[in-house]
Amino acid sequence: MAGVSGDRKGKKDDNGIGSAIDFMLSNAKLVLGVGGAAMLGIATLAVKRIYDRALSAPSSPTKATQSGKRSWEEPSWLGSSPRTLNRDMKQNLSRSLQTLPTSSNFSQPDGLRRALGGAAKADLQRARLRLSLQEHLWMFFQERVVIPAEEQALARRAALDICAELRVFLHAKLPDMPLREMYLSGSLYDDLQVVTADHAQLMVPLILEKNLWSSIPGEDTIMNVPGFWLVRRENLEYFPRGSSYWDRCMVGGYLSPKSVLEVFEKLVAGSINWPAIGSVLDYVIRPVVPSETLTLEVQYETDRHLYVDFLPLLVMEDGISLIAKTHRLAAERHQNLWRQSFRVAETARLRALDQEDGGCRGVCLKVAKAVCKLNPPLACLNASQLTNAILLLSESKGSWTNEALADRFTQLLRSLVGHLEAGRLPCALNPKVNLFCELTPQEIDELGYTLYCALSDPESLLRTA
């Protein structure tokens, strides 16, 4: 904060407002995080910089302070603050903002307009010395985001080989297991994978008897978890336990995704001789332990690895897709809950919007995914959250042409900060679902702090990557 509260010697009289704002910003290190974004706002910080430039023009442009830094240079305070903010701090800062003294000079629009005009010229000069954000984004997209077609083809072939081996094994080992045809899915097949072709999903659709099982939305249960579902066993008095193949995976009257995964884990991770299969395919294949889902790691070239998630899937009568992926924060407490998958519908809507207006939503999503993948503090943001943030932005007016990529990317960062501050990101397809419900408070704070600091310099996310 030294750049803010430093020596004001030689500055014009500011009737107290400069000192007041300095006092406020010197305490900003208590709140500069997600809460700081809510209380101070980007505008307040920008006005402070404008104000200092307007009042601190040097009498001698070459005169420097004892520290070696010219007294009129722009302060470098952004991003130097801790990340914690509690409710009392927010309230105290709000009261401080309301009691700031005013200046007759800057209460007039003309004075502020002159200051803004001078700042705009300085910003324009700086902009001419570097590439625009738009150019940086497209350069980043071409150099870091896009995966070569050859690499994608090799990864897809490896995934297909694994799928074929599993299909043959399951049909031979358990011919009576009611399964539909397995298929490969995920961003690798939607042209939405970024940086490296390293992940695929093997969907394993289970067949349930219509009169023996029914689905119940999570918000209608005592657990009240929108976006998750219970699958209940029905008509036990007429069709006793054992009438359905999947009764063996029933826990407390409900089909347990954890038990279903355990059945497949014993088969896929325990019964299949992967070293032998790998030698035939010229791969190195091994189960990943531990893992939230059943995952296989496939080394198909010396320096290339592919992770294949084995995902049991239920497609209910109303078309709802449920996958055996437990709640991230309460796996034990919600072990009977199946996760609703919106991925297919989300991707379809994103592409439909881009086709309607020739938009850059897909490009913006891929850039955002790459930034999160390459910046560890943002690793908790997943593809579904980023996709829904873009879909929500698309509901408001604004151009999504390729020329507007920089504006939309910056708007995406700003909207994510707002959602993190609220602790809620509604699903565009079902607003009851909070896509941030599986983030811890510490993760929300870290994400908000990182994105808030990036608002003043979005290119820093590309450089860090």
Automatic annotation (TrEMBL):
<dbReference type="Pfam" id="PF21297">
    <property type="entry name" value="MID51-like_C"/>
</dbReference>
<dbReference type="InterPro" id="IPR046906">
    <property type="entry name" value="Mab-21_HhH/H2TH-like"/>
</dbReference>
<dbReference type="InterPro" id="IPR045909">
    <property type="entry name" value="MID49/MID51"/>
</dbReference>
<dbReference type="GO" id="GO:0005741">
    <property type="term" value="C:mitochondrial outer membrane"/>
</dbReference>
<dbReference type="InterPro" id="IPR049097">
    <property type="entry name" value="MID51-like_C"/>
</dbReference>
<dbReference type="GO" id="GO:0090141">
    <property type="term" value="P:positive regulation of mitochondrial fission"/>
</dbReference>
<feature type="transmembrane region" description="Helical">
    <location>
        <begin position="30"/>
        <end position="47"/>
    </location>
</feature>
<keyword id="KW-0812">Transmembrane</keyword>
<feature type="region of interest" description="Disordered">
    <location>
        <begin position="56"/>
        <end position="85"/>
    </location>
</feature>
<dbReference type="Pfam" id="PF20266">
    <property type="entry name" value="Mab-21_C"/>
</dbReference>
<keyword id="KW-0496">Mitochondrion</keyword>
<feature type="domain" description="Mab-21-like HhH/H2TH-like">
    <location>
        <begin position="363"/>
        <end position="447"/>
    </location>
</feature>
<feature type="compositionally biased region" description="Polar residues">
    <location>
        <begin position="57"/>
        <end position="69"/>
    </location>
</feature>
<keyword id="KW-0472">Membrane</keyword>
<keyword id="KW-1000">Mitochondrion outer membrane</keyword>
<keyword id="KW-1133">Transmembrane helix</keyword>
<keyword id="KW-0547">Nucleotide-binding</keyword>
<dbReference type="GO" id="GO:0000166">
    <property type="term" value="F:nucleotide binding"/>
</dbReference>
<protein>
    <recommendedName>
        <fullName>Mitochondrial elongation factor 1</fullName>
    </recommendedName>
</protein>
<dbReference type="InterPro" id="IPR024810">
    <property type="entry name" value="MAB21L/cGLR"/>
</dbReference>
<dbReference type="GO" id="GO:0007005">
    <property type="term" value="P:mitochondrion organization"/>
</dbReference>
<feature type="domain" description="Mitochondrial dynamics protein MID51-like C-terminal">
    <location>
        <begin position="151"/>
        <end position="346"/>
    </location>
</feature>
<keyword id="KW-0597">Phosphoprotein</keyword>
